[in-house]
């Protein structure tokens, strides 16, 4: 999968994946969305972020989650 809006540069945000070379980490954008921020609010608050950046950040997160294995504790049966 190719991500044209996600860049990784050791000189920008210590090499964390960022939106289009900006000093705006993908993790920050995903965190805003996970906290319930509406797309429109994000776009209004950060005018340099584009709707396509949000779409690609979500695709990037899904791509990473596809390969990630995390050991979870066993779930407690419901009573």
TrEMBL record:
Gene3D superfamilies according to UniProt: Winged helix-like DNA-binding domain superfamily/Winged helix DNA-binding domain
InterPro entries hit by this protein: DUF433, Homeodomain-like_sf, WH-like_DNA-bd_sf
Name by which UniProt lists this protein: Uncharacterized conserved protein, DUF433 family
The organism of origin for this protein: Bradyrhizobium ottawaense
């Amino acid at each position: 999968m190719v991500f044209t809006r996600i860049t990784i540069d050791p000189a920008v945000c210590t090499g964390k994946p960022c939106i289009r070379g900006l000093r705006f980490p993908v993790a920050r954008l995903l965190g805003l969305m996970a906290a319930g921020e509406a797309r429109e609010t994000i776009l209004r608050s950060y005018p340099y972020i584009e709707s396509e950046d949000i779409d690609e950040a979500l695709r990037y997160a899904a791509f990473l989650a596809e390969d990630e294995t995390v050991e979870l504790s066993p779930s407690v049966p419901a009573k």
